[in-house]
């Protein structure tokens, strides 16, 4: 996985969250669409905090995007992974920053 950040508005340049800090974020999650050349290849929106109000969560501990593997390693062990790109991208933002995170 990798993450690319495109800054739309700079933050204060100083205050960055660290692992376990609670952050408040407005976000819009869209699928990547290489056929769309406008607005950073944003495709269909799959989630947004804009209709629900502010989104508050601890960062850096894998609570936001969790992917359950479709297979079990054994009868008693099922693997679960989380998207590190979200945590990595948010922990590299500063207070007040607006950006686009492209996670692959």
TrEMBL record:
<dbReference type="GO" id="GO:0003755">
    <property type="term" value="F:peptidyl-prolyl cis-trans isomerase activity"/>
</dbReference>
<keyword id="KW-0413">Isomerase</keyword>
<comment type="function">
    <text>PPIases accelerate the folding of proteins. It catalyzes the cis-trans isomerization of proline imidic peptide bonds in oligopeptides.</text>
</comment>
<dbReference type="Pfam" id="PF00254">
    <property type="entry name" value="FKBP_C"/>
</dbReference>
<dbReference type="InterPro" id="IPR050689">
    <property type="entry name" value="FKBP-type_PPIase"/>
</dbReference>
<comment type="similarity">
    <text>Belongs to the FKBP-type PPIase family. FKBP1 subfamily.</text>
</comment>
<dbReference type="InterPro" id="IPR046357">
    <property type="entry name" value="PPIase_dom_sf"/>
</dbReference>
<protein>
    <recommendedName>
        <fullName>peptidylprolyl isomerase</fullName>
        <ecNumber>5.2.1.8</ecNumber>
    </recommendedName>
</protein>
<feature type="domain" description="PPIase FKBP-type">
    <location>
        <begin position="20"/>
        <end position="104"/>
    </location>
</feature>
<dbReference type="InterPro" id="IPR001179">
    <property type="entry name" value="PPIase_FKBP_dom"/>
</dbReference>
<dbReference type="GO" id="GO:0005737">
    <property type="term" value="C:cytoplasm"/>
</dbReference>
<keyword id="KW-0697">Rotamase</keyword>
